[in-house]
Every structure is written in structure tokens, then in C-alpha cells.
Design goal:
256 residues, mainly alpha, 12 helices
């Protein structure tokens, strides 16, 4: 049943004009950023050839490109996630789902996986841009794979938070604003809180605060590092947001 809901959610997204608008704008901005980075890389060639171990296109083009994509997801995911539950409740179709012989866990995971599949299309399209340079220059495929995995995990974390916020209201616009505020709050306060706690020697509390700093947890992937702590923090944020979403829907079902 989870995959049935996921398939329906993915088809609904591809049938939505809003999703296509967001996807188009995302690709236009990413394409422009890619061409700018590529132009800068080509202009640096005279200086790079004089270096003993110069950085390549992956470091100078792909890594900043994925950083730009991560920032864009901060805006795109709340807009796309707002309809996951909030629109179902506004259209009174959520009543049918909640009265069906399926658990809230299946509903949440189904919608999350369907939404994530759409976001993975964005990640794949982003990765294809630097891959298009494979015939003209040497690429660091390990770093490129790390960037793609990191961006996919970041997208999953954003999607989980957006899904949870969408469970809190029947108004999609409110859900979008709430999800963006939650994600922006994590970006702005997560790093500061973690650094402050770490400076005081509270390493355990700092590690907990890092869970709510998804952008910082993405950064090691951009350096070609497999940071198990960053990986665990992203996984914990996803699990926490999905658990809260399940509990919220269970509470709504009990209230009728």
C-alpha cells in the first residue's frame, strides 16, 4: 500500500502545473549557475596549468553547483510539500484516506516516498550537468557521487520536515510558509547553537543541535568526505519529522 500511495503521489506531482513551474525555474537557475561556473573555470585555465596539482572541473564547477542546488531546495521544497497533506484536508479527500483500512504510517511513508522520488529527479538533472563535461575534461566521479548522495539526503530531510508541517494545517499556503520558516530557522540557528554549545564543552548537546542543521550536514559531502556523524544527523532528522507526522495524523484520526 505504501508504494501504491507513493505512485499516486508521484503521478499527482507530475500532473500539477505548480510542480512543473518549480521544476522549470529550478533548472533555469541551475543551468545559469552551471554556465557561469563553467565560464569562470575556462577563464582560470591559464593559472591552473601552472599549478602542480590544480583543482578540476568537479571541484570548481560541480561542487559549487550542488551548493546552489541545496540553497534552491530550501525554497522549492516547502512550495511543493505544502499540498501533501494540507491540500488533501482542504479538498476533504484526507477523510477517505484516514477512513481506509491503512495505517497512518503507510500514508506518511507513501506520500514521503512519492515526493522524494520527484525530488530525486531534480537531483539527477543537477548531476547530469557536470556529467556532460565528461568527454571534455576529467571528472572526480567519487566526489560527484558524494555530492549527489548528499543532495539527495538533504532533499529527503527537507521533504520530511515539509510533510510534517503540512500535517499541521488545512491551508497549503500556511503549510508552505511554515515549512520554509522551519527550514530557514534550522539553517540560521542550528549552526550557531551547535558552535555555542561546542565552545562550552557540551559536545553531546552540540551533536543533538547538529541534527537540526541540515545544510552543515551537507557540507562534508561537498568536500568528498563520508562523514558518519553528518549522515546520522540527516537520517535522524528524517526519522524525527516522519514520526511527528505519523503521530499528528494519528491524533487527528482519533479526534475525528
Amino acid at each position: 500500500m505504501i508504494f501504491t500511495i507513493a505512485s499516486k503521489e508521484l503521478k499527482t506531482l507530475f500532473a500539477s502545473p505548480l510542480a512543473w513551474v518549480v521544476l522549470t525555474l529550478f533548472q533555469i537557475i541551475i543551468g545559469y549557475a552551471f554556465l557561469r561556473r563553467l565560464d569562470d573555470f575556462l577563464q582560470l585555465q591559464p593559472q591552473l596549468v601552472q599549478m602542480a596539482n590544480p583543482p578540476g572541473a568537479t571541484e570548481l564547477v560541480a561542487a559549487p553547483l550542488f551548493g546552489t542546488a541545496a540553497a534552491l531546495l530550501l525554497f522549492a521544497v516547502p512550495v511543493l510539500a505544502m499540498r501533501l497533506i494540507a491540500e488533501e484536508r482542504r479538498n476533504q479527500t484526507m477523510v477517505l484516506l484516514m477512513s481506509a483500512p491503512i495505517s497512518m504510517t503507510e500514508i506518511v511513508f507513501g506520500k514521503f516516498l512519492g515526493f522524494l522520488a520527484f525530488l530525486l529527479v531534480i537531483v539527477a538533472l543537477t548531476a547530469l550537468m557536470p556529467l556532460s563535461l565528461a568527454g571534455a575534461t576529467r571528472l572526480d566521479y567519487g566526489l560527484l557521487a558524494g555530492l549527489a548522495v548528499g543532495l539527495a539526503l538533504l532533499a529527503a530531510a527537507f521533504a520530511a520536515v515539509g510533510l510534517f508541517v503540512s500535517c499541521l494545517t488545512a491551508h497549503p499556503v500556511v503549510a508552505a510558509i511554515g515549512a520554509f520558516a522551519a527550514l530557514l530557522g534550522m539553517v540560521l540557528t542550528g549552526d550557531a547553537a551547535g558552535d555555542s554549545l561546542r565552545a562550552r564543552g557540551w559536545t553531546v548537546a552540540a551533536s543533538v543541535a547538529q541534527v537540526f542543521s541540515p545544510i552543515r550536514n551537507f557540507e562534508p559531502f561537498g568536500k568528498g568526505m563520508l562523514d558518519t556523524q553528518a549522515l546520522a544527523c540527516l537520517a535522524l532528522l528524517i526519522a524525527l519529522a516522519l514520526t511527528l507526522a505519523i503521530r499528528q495524523l494519528d491524533a487527528q484520526r482519533l479526534r475525528g
